[in-house]
Write a structure and sequence with these properties.
GO terms for molecular function: ATP binding; metal ion binding; ribosomal S6-glutamic acid ligase activity. Keywords: ATP-binding, Ligase, Magnesium, Manganese, Metal-binding, Nucleotide-binding, Protein biosynthesis, Ribonucleoprotein, Ribosomal protein. One of its GO terms (cellular component) is cytoplasm. Pfam families: RimK, Rimk_N, Zn_protease. The protein is an alpha+beta fold. The chain folds into 4 domains: 151 residues, Cathepsin D, subunit A, domain 1, CATH 2.40.70; 93 residues, Rossmann fold (3-Layer(aba) Sandwich), CATH 3.40.50.20; 64 residues, 2-Layer Sandwich (Dna Ligase, domain 1); 107 residues, ATP-grasp fold, B domain (D-amino Acid Aminotransferase, Chain A, domain 1, 2-Layer Sandwich), CATH 3.30.470.20. The chain is 22% helix and 33% strand. Strands 2-3-11-4-10-9-8 form a 7-stranded mixed sheet. Strands 26-25-24-27-28 form a 5-stranded antiparallel sheet, sandwiched between helices. Strand 21 and strand 22 form a beta hairpin. The relative contact order is 0.12.
């Protein structure tokens, strides 16, 4: 009687194989093949569910290389099911079930797998019989019948774009249900992410060296992939403390605490721009009332702008058309013990300025703002109007350099057109989106979310420690 012939179309699997899960951003894993198990399993830690009840998702960390707990990949996937799984030692565990493409060599197919802690096992994945289907033959005494991979992929840039469709968990720090907040939530959810609005003042912090945490309404906040701060001027100190806590945890913050603080302190902001050689109106600052005349001489002749350091949306900004008027305003501010700047008035701007919105180091939109009749301030909150404008290369470069100086991922840079080139007035770390989206008809919120995606997805933790041989 002749021996049965092996089907040449079947894939040969040993008891251990190299596989990849491209949907999860895992380009190389060792998987143990176990036909005695029905369901496949993937090593996962810090498992958290998120998203809506109707479309739940799960976020988890994978340590793909045994013995390298410092190298972690953040993954997320849609929850397919929850299933009770009984291990070989008789213990039962409720697990999330997800689905992903499984790639072996040049072939791939979709499988389901449960999430569980396999940190004590050398193989970070177990392939059960459901995943093997009918096109695999098992060679139980051999390993690596398919092409070998290498853990070295986790030290290269390739892994940065390995999971382009990963759903992110994003928090918007905001106390207001306004247009900008709603648009960010809408844009994020449209791109498949879960976006939660967190009231900054309801956050409180556990500060310690081992496990710094942010708590909210009596519970520890989950781990977010990204935080988008929308910190109001009245809560700058506490708001930046909350952002700093997220930075300590290791969460990507679109705008960092240092940049927000620098943008809110107008004196520091002007000093920072001066350090980076960014054009701005001549500016002077002094604390002694004896220096009023010298202060005036530093910025030039009247008219001048007198501006409170804490001013926002055009409030606390006064145009003094004569030297005497300027002295009166300065005396009044000093009487209130208020800190202020004196600034040259750029006459040729004629009550207009340009708002450039910078996202990820690029100007994505710009508009010209014109003040209301009889008002030199062009703020839209004060009745000004806006229209789309084409900016020059010099203006674009000034806006980008200003945002970079403050290290802001999202910035509204206000500048004036002067005879000697663009002059940056202010860098706003929480720019409103309504005016510029209305004027330009551009989806700025979507571009913000695209930048968040590209910034978050480089997930591996680098280390000088060598990876184990394959």
């Amino acid at each position: 009687m002749s021996e049965p012939q092996e089907n040449p179309d079947l894939l040969r699997f040993g008891w251990e194989e190299w596989v990849s899960l491209p949907d999860l951003g895992l380009p190389a894993l060792k998987a143990k093949v176990d036909t005695g198990a029905r369901t496949s399993a993937l090593h996962a830690s810090d498992i958290e569910s998120f998203g809506s009840i109707n479309a739940p998702k799960v976020r988890f960390m994978v340590h793909p290389v045994p013995g390298r707990e410092d190298l972690a990949i953040a993954c997320s996937a849609r929850v397919v099911d929850r299933r009770t799984v009984t291990s070989s030692n008789g213990e039962s565990e409720q697990r999330y079930v997800i689905a992903s493409a499984l790639r072996v060599g040049d072939q791939s197919w979709r499988i389901e797998m449960t999430l569980t802690d396999r940190s004590s096992m050398n193989s970070r994945m177990l392939l059960g019989r459901e995943a093997l289907k009918d096109h695999i033959t098992i060679v139980a005494t051999e390993r690596y019948q398919q092409p070998r991979l290498s853990y070295d992929v986790y030290t290269t840039a390739k892994v940065r774009t390995a999971a382009p469709n990963r759903s992110l968990r994003i928090a918007v720090l905001s106390r207001e249900d306004n247009y900008s907040t709603r648009r960010l939530v809408e844009a994020g959810e449209k791109r498949g992410h879960s976006v939660e609005v967190i009231d900054t003042l309801r956050c409180y912090m556990a500060i310690n060296a081992l496990a710094p945490e942010v708590h909210y309404d009596g519970k520890r906040l989950p781990r977010y992939d990204a935080v988008i701060p929308r910190i109001g001027a009245t809560i700058t100190s506490y708001g930046t403390a909350v952002v700093r806590q997220f930075e300590t945890i290791g969460t990507f913050c679109l705008n960092g605490s240092d940049g927000i603080l620098a943008s809110r302190d107008k004196l520091f902001a002007h000093q920072l721009m001066a350090r980076h050689r960014i054009g701005m109106p001549n500016t002077a600052f002094a604390s002694s009332p004896k220096d009023t005349d010298s202060l005036m001489r530093l910025v030039g002749n009247a008219p001048v702008i007198v501006k409170l350091l804490e001013s926002t949306q055009g409030k606390g900004v006064v145009l003094a058309e004569t030297k005497k008027a300027a002295q009166s305003v300065i005396d009044a501010f000093r009487g209130l013990k208020a800190n202020f700047l004196v600034q040259d008035f750029v006459k040729e701007s004629a009550g207009e300025d340009i708002r450039c919105l910078v996202v990820g180091g690029k100007v994505v939109a710009s508009m010209k703002r014109t003040g209301a009749e009889g008002d030199f301030r062009s703020n839209l909150h004060r009745g000004g109007s806006a229209k789309v404008v084409r900016i020059t290369r010099e203006e674009r470069e000034a806006a980008v350099r200003a945002a970079r100086a403050f290290r802001l991922g999202l910035a509204g840079v206000d500048l004036l057109r002067s005879d000697s080139g663009p002059k940056v007035l202010e860098v706003n770390s929480s720019p409103g989106l309504e005016g510029i989206e209305t004027a330009t008809h551009k989806d700025i919120a979507d571009q913000v979310m695209a930048h968040v995606e590209s910034s978050v997805r480089p997930t591996p933790v680098r280390s000088r420690k060598a990876l184990p041989d394959a």
